[in-house]
Every structure is written in structure tokens, then in C-alpha cells.
Amino acid sequence: MVGEAPLIGVLALQGGFQAHAKMLRGLGAQVREVRVPRDLDGLQGLVIPGGESTTMTLGIEREGLAEPLRALAASGTPLLGSCAGLIMLDREHLSVMDIRAERNAFGRQTKSFEADLDVAGLEGGPLRGIFIRAPWIAEHGAEVEILARVDGHAVAAREGDMLVVAFHSELSDDDRVHRLFLRAVARQRAAVA
Ligand code: GLN
Question: What is the value of pTM for the model shown?
Fold first, then answer.
């Protein structure tokens, strides 16, 4: 029912899922850690965190999560992918979003940095993005809206209610990306209520 706390899943096979869970709880969501397909039942949104995309791919295969995750995306459930989560949603991984991610695009170990980003649709001034061996979006289809760039490279995008950021929005104290995601969740719930 609209009005109750939304039930949001956080893929918890590997990587930085706890910081997402904390931020989502802080915004009033109920959070369920997702490790096996049945954990996806009844979710109203799902976050795929950062981490290491090869390890995460192996975990998704091991647990039989690829098809159920694709089905969740196809049902229109809002998704938020951060860093490795962005990679997981691209054409070469789960293939639910019409983007191609370039892994470690800013360089490998040494190229972690922070940048102030102008994100389309976010009010309140620039967002501090924390980039850790981050990808960028090298190619995208016509349905994809690029929301932010660093040095001309796309680092945030949306396609329908799928939102991806190349940076770690869960590690700063600026929760506007998660709020944007939860607004999509609230819209979907209002639409199906
Ligand atoms: N470089 C990692 C990968 O390719 C992603 C880094 C991150 O999620 N912080 O999987």
C-alpha cells in the first residue's frame, strides 16, 4: 500500500551493499538483502551496489539470479546501479539497460577521485561524486538519458526507471540519488495501487 515503507532489495552477494542499506533505511525504506532468487519476491525496488563486477557476475551465475533479475527489470521495478552495479546492468552483463560500460575507465588503482557533478534533475546544487576505479558509459541507446558527465564522459544515466551512477552515492552524506530512486519507487507504487 502506498504510504507504508517501500520494500527495497539490495543485492548482497559482494561489495558495498551495507552502506546502501543504511542510506535507504535512513530514508524510511524497509531493506532486504538479496542473495537468492526468492529474495526478489515482492520487492518494490532493487539496488545493485559497487564492488567487483567479475566476482559479482560469478555470484549471480552461481545463485541462478540472472534470469530473475532480468524479469524484475522487465516488470518495470525501479533499479539503481552504482559503479559495479552500473556495469552489471549493461549490454554485456545482465543486458537490461541499453548502455555499454567501460570498466576501470578512469584508470585502475590510482584513479580514485572525487568530483562535483551537475546532475540533471537533482536540485540543490552540485553533487559530490566519489569515484573508485569507476566505469564510464562508453555507448548508449536513444532511450537512455545521460544525467551527468566528468570531462565529457557519461557517469550517470537513466532509462525509464533504471538509474545508474558510476560513483558511490552511498558513501557521501548526500542522499539525493537515493531520494531520486525512491521517488521512482513511489511513482510505480502509486501507479499499481
Ligand atoms: N572496477 C570495478 C569493476 O570493474 C568497479 C569498482 C567499484 O564498484 N567501485 O568491477
Answer: 0.96
